[in-house]
């Protein structure tokens, strides 16, 4: 009886250890495959002289990971201010740049998306001497976008800031995207400790069955 009781207590201890080990597993990253955009915001800072040009829009669109998308495939151009049309596209930026297509992951309630290859095209009905199609027709606005992710609904809210250099008056821009994401869940690997616990538990169960089985 004492051996039987000891084996039972050992088996129960291993079960409890295995449960604790599994419960302590960190959240696994899932790969983002597509962002289904429902709204977006843009804020361009032209410095103390010209001020800020900003807008919030509800233009639906899709941003697909792992590929470049020309305008207007991400979303249709939106009106920014009284005379500017704003559109975005993704590109490697060659030959000057060598950027990778967008990619993203989610970990728990956080989403991180590399949008370094995101560009904006600005077109105007009244170009000025400092604001020309050659300068503002293809602006790299990309960055590492970080924000919230709802694991139940797949809703996301991403934002990032880009600093501009060499562009007349334009110093920085802040951007945000909202919508729902398509994700591909990553397999959850069992840690070595969990495998060890499981092996020990199987062995104890075998011994227990032999002990409890009448000869």
Please tell me about this protein's structure:
The chain has 215 residues and is α+β, with helices and mostly antiparallel strands. The chain contains 4 helices and 12 strands. 24% of the residues lie in helices and 39% in strands. Helix 1 packs antiparallel against helix 4.
Set out the fold topology.
Blueprint lengths: L1 H22 L6 E16 L1 H4 L1 E6 L3 E4 L13 E3 L3 E7 L12 E5 L2 E5 L3 E7 L8 H4 L2 E2 L3 E6 L5 E9 L8 E13 L7 H21 L3
Helix pairs in contact: 1-4
Tell me the number of helical segments per DSSP (H or I, 4 or more residues long): 4
Structural class, judged by helices and strands?
alpha+beta
- Strand element count: 12
Mean pLDDT: 82
Shape: elongated
Low-confidence stretches: none
Q: Please estimate the helix content.
A: 10-25%
Strands of the biggest beta sheet: in what spatial order? Answer: 1-6-7-10-11-12
Summarize the biggest pleated sheet.
6 strands, antiparallel, barrel
Report the span from N to C terminus. 16 Å
Bin the strand percentage: 35-45%
C-alpha Rg, in Å? Answer: 27 Å
Number of domains: 2
Oligomeric composition of the shown chains? single chain
The topology string of helices and strands comes to HEHEEEEEEEHEEEEH
């Amino acid at each position: 009886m004492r051996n039987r009781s000891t084996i039972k207590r050992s088996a129960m201890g291993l079960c409890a250890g295995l449960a604790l080990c599994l419960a302590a597993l960190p959240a696994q990253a899932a790969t983002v495959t597509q962002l289904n955009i429902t709204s977006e915001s843009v804020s361009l800072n032209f410095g103390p002289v010209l001020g800020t040009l900003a807008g919030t829009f509800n233009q639906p669109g899709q941003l697909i990971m792992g590929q470049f998308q020309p305008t207007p495939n991400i979303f249709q151009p939106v009106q920014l201010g009284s005379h500017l049309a704003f559109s975005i596209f993704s590109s490697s930026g060659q030959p000057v740049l060598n950027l990778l297509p967008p990619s993203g992951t989610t970990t728990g309630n956080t989403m991180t998306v590399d949008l370094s290859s995101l560009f904006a095209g600005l077109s105007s009905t009244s170009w000025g001497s400092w604001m020309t199609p050659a300068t503002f027709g293809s602006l790299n606005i990309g960055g590492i976008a970080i924000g919230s992710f709802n694991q139940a609904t797949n809703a996301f809210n991403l934002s990032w800031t880009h600093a501009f250099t060499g562009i007349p008056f334009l110093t920085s821009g802040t951007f945000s995207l909202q919508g729902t994401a398509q994700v591909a869940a990553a397999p959850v690997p069992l840690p070595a400790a969990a495998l060890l616990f499981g092996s020990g538990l199987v062995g104890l169960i075998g011994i227990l069955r032999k002990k409890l089985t009448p000869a």
